[in-house]
Design goal:
- The strands form 4 sheets. Strands 5-4-1-6-9-10-12-13 form an 8-stranded mixed β-sheet, sandwiched between helices. A two-stranded antiparallel sheet has the order 2-3.
- It contains 7 helices and 14 strands.
- The protein is globular and about 60 Å long.
- The protein has one domain: Rossmann fold (3-Layer(aba) Sandwich).
- Helix 1 crosses helix 2 and helix 2 crosses helix 7.
- The protein binds cytidine-5'-monophosphate.
C-alpha cells in the first residue's frame, strides 16, 4: 500500500493480463541454467547456459496461470517475481531440490544444462600448480529428468536437447530413449547466450519446428504446445 510496484514487476503483471490461462490450476516444476561442479574452492566445471530460456519458460508458465517452482543453477538473471525460486549450484543440489518439490506437480520441464559429471574428490584446499599435468576423476551425476520421469506418478515430463549436429535424428532418438512425451531441441551454436532461439518440438505426432524468435515468444509457444498435450480439449 502506498508504494508503486517495481517497474519490472508491473510489466510482468501487465504481460500476464492478456495471456490465455491455459495452465490454470497446474503446478509446474522447471529447472534452468547451468550447474557448477567444484574442482576446488575456486575452480569448477560448468556448461554454457545463460538460463534465459528456462527463466522465459517459467515466466510463460506463470502468465498461463500455473503455479511455478523454478530450480535454478547459477545465472545473472532476476527470477520471475511470482515463481517460487530455489537457487542451487551443483547437479546433486538440483536433483535434491527437484525431488523435494516434485510431489503434486502436473508438469516437469527440464531446461537446465546439467553437468553430466562431477569431480570424484573435490579438493578442500586450492590445488597448486606444480608444473606437471593434472588428472581429475569424474563421477556421473544423477539424471534428474530420467529420475522424475520414472516416478510411479510422474508428472508430464518435457526434456530439452542442445545438439551440435543432426538435430532431428539426435533429438527424436533422445526423446525415445528417455521415454518423454515431448522434447524441445535446438542447435547449441544458434542458442547459447543469445536472446533468440529456434526450437523444434518432438512429440508422438512428429516434429514441429517453431520460427526463430525472442526466447520469451518461443517460451510461450512451448507452453501452449504443452497445454494442448496435457489438456487435449484445448486443441
Ligand atoms: O541426455 P541429455 O543430457 O542431452 O538430456 C538433456 C535433458 O535431460 C535436458 O532436459 C536436461 O535438463 C536433462 N538432464 C537432467 N539431468 C542430467 C542431465 C540432463 O535433468 N544429469
Amino acid at each position: 500500500m502506498g508504494r508503486m510496484l517495481e517497474p519490472l514487476e508491473l510489466a510482468d503483471a501487465l504481460e500476464a493480463v492478456w495471456q490465455a490461462k491455459v495452465l490454470q490450476g497446474k503446478k509446474v516444476l522447471i529447472t534452468a541454467g547451468p550447474t557448477f561442479e567444484a574442482i576446488d574452492p575456486v575452480r569448477g566445471i560448468t556448461n554454457a547456459s545463460s538460463g534465459k530460456l528456462g527463466y522465459a519458460v517459467a515466466q510463460a508458465a506463470l502468465d498461463a496461470g500455473a503455479e511455478v517452482v523454478l530450480v535454478s543453477g547459477p545465472t545473472c538473471l532476476t527470477a520471475p517475481s511470482r515463481a517460487k525460486t530455489i537457487q542451487v549450484v551443483s547437479a546433486q543440489e538440483m536433483f535434491d531440490a527437484v525431488e523435494r518439490d516434485v510431489a503434486g506437480c502436473d508438469i516437469f520441464i527440464g531446461v537446465a544444462a546439467v553437468a553430466d559429471y562431477r569431480v570424484a574428490n573435490a579438493s578442500v584446499q586450492k590445488i597448486k600448480k606444480d608444473g606437471s599435468s593434472l588428472t581429475l576423476e569424474l563421477t556421473q551425476n544423477p539424471d534428474i529428468l530420467a529420475s522424475v520421469a520414472s516416478h510411479p506418478d510422474a508428472p508430464f515430463c518435457v526434456g530439452f536437447a542442445a545438439e551440435s549436429e543432426n538435430l532431428y535424428e539426435n533429438a527424436e532418438a533422445k526423446r525415445r530413449r528417455k521415454r518423454l512425451p515431448l522434447l524441445a531441441a535446438n542447435l547449441a551454436q544458434q542458442a547459447i547466450g543469445s536472446d533468440e532461439n529456434e526450437l523444434v518440438l518432438f512429440d508422438d505426432d512428429g516434429a514441429h519446428p517453431l520460427p526463430r524468435a525472442l526466447k520469451n515468444i518461443v517460451a510461450r509457444q512451448l507452453i501452449d504446445h504443452i497445454a494442448r498435450l496435457v489438456s487435449p480439449r484445448l486443441k
